[in-house]
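Posting here for the record, re: phosphoenolpyruvate.
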Amino acid sequence: MAPTSPPTILKGLGVSEGIGTGHFAIFSRSVQKVPTPSGAPSEQSEILRYRQARDEAEKRLSRAAAQLTRELGPQQGGILGAHALMLKDALFNQEIELLIQKGKTAEAAVEMVSQKLADRLSAGPNSYLNERSSDFQNIADEIIQELSGVSPLSLLSELGEIILGAREIGPADIVELPSNVKGLVLETGSATTHATILARSLRIPMVVGVGELLKSAKEGENVVLDGGSGQVILAAGMELIETHRKHLAQSSSGPAPDSIMQGDPVLTRDGRRVKILANVTLMRELENLDDCHPEGIGLFRTEFLFLHQTSMPSEEEQFERIRRVVEALSPRRVVFRTVDFGADKPAPPHLTGASNQASHDLRGIRWCLEHLDFFRAHLRTILRASRFGSVAIMFPMVPGLEIFRKAKAVLQETIASLPLDERPRENSVPLGVMIEVPSAALMASGLAREADFFSIGTNDLLQYTVGLDRQDPTMIMLNTFLPPSLLRLIHFVVEEAHKKGKPTTICGELAHVPIVIPVLVGLGIDALSMETSWIPRARSIIQSVSFEECSLLAKQALEIETLAEMKNLLEKASPY
Ligand code: PEP
Ligand code: MG
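Prediction output follows.
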């Protein structure tokens, strides 16, 4: 037997637990060439087909440009923005439509014109323009992808079970992944990007930050990926694959039976109640709720109702989806976070018009206040659905009182504008503020006076407090060991809220970290909201501690001034 070379092991950060096995495939936005459609379409219908595909390609490029600008800066985003503009170029369009009028298919015309322009640029004396010649190939690929209706993601579904590798991947791509993707491995990334949060929500094992993966891995080779330890084994032998499959079968045979029944309160040993709630990002996660018995949904990320849609859902469609969530949870409460577009979740162009660049820089509630018609309709859908169960609303990225008051006034006007039989019972719903930026934390006293509850979004609060992007791979250290600055902010917020009798939840990723949970309990937090897969473990941690011990631990932690000391304290105090 020929000797086999040993597998290569890459080490990254395990950000979504679970083991995946499959053939390695690379996720890339470029498409393979597709055959031109058969039959003889009329020239006019072919021109229309071309224009539609071009417009869709333009929308997609503008959306991707805004996302890249956010993630990597204006230089990188500008490249795609320029591609979007090139699609509108009059000469480019005229030449393509002329060829279609002469009987060419739209695909062939796009291919021929872009090739001609690319050749012209690469033949000239200007080296900058020579380099730009590939841009025409890229935009031709975009239009042809639209014409064929084939996306790089749908091509993946034909490859059998795969582990997908990429330099980076956006949240919208994760949503569209076919079910044969058994694991994700990225060269970049961190534990708190929205792509990672989604992978966890969808229970896709994921490892990020493996460095130059795409150089070391070959498409088609066997890969084992462990989203817990962060190991990725390339060119794994069949024996190894089988061992991992067995392990996978055993661990997926279900968690140990949970003695908690739906509705039972979760208590510490000495009787302190801490609610355990679910974070829900996608409608399909509702199916996971039965297994883990959350006391409600503490964070429903409504922007995902819009993000992966190709057109704007009507108000009735939005309402129906929200109502389904409310009815599924009733009588338990659902907290709907109003849309948080911006950063790595730019608003789709069909909501804003592709040219509305200014709004791409706004996030959360500020974006909504710039798009009042959309915001009012969005609020109406949630308010109307409140009659079907128990609903609360919270606003994301609130910086302080002025903006909160403005948004609250829009909510109150919207309630008043509804017919009596569609208004929420008692004419109001509980209204919360997400504490995600230091200014909101520092102004907690006034906000607590005017809001009904707080929910601390530690993913954003951490990045804005320590000045490190949440996509940064080193964030994992901070998110695991609770930087003293973040702890002090949380403490301050909880105290201010409690002085006004207002409950506070933590809904960022910190809420499920086993060694941090006792400290959060000790601070007096009222609820922890997390992705469903973490709930059983968080519940048993709370049941195993006493509030008295936790308060003591929190007191000690509040004295600490460095991350290293905090790590020491938490590791010593925790059996996990
Ligand atoms: C947060 O910032 O902690 C949060 C829960 O919101 P998101 O992760 O959606 O930004
Ligand atoms: Mg946030």
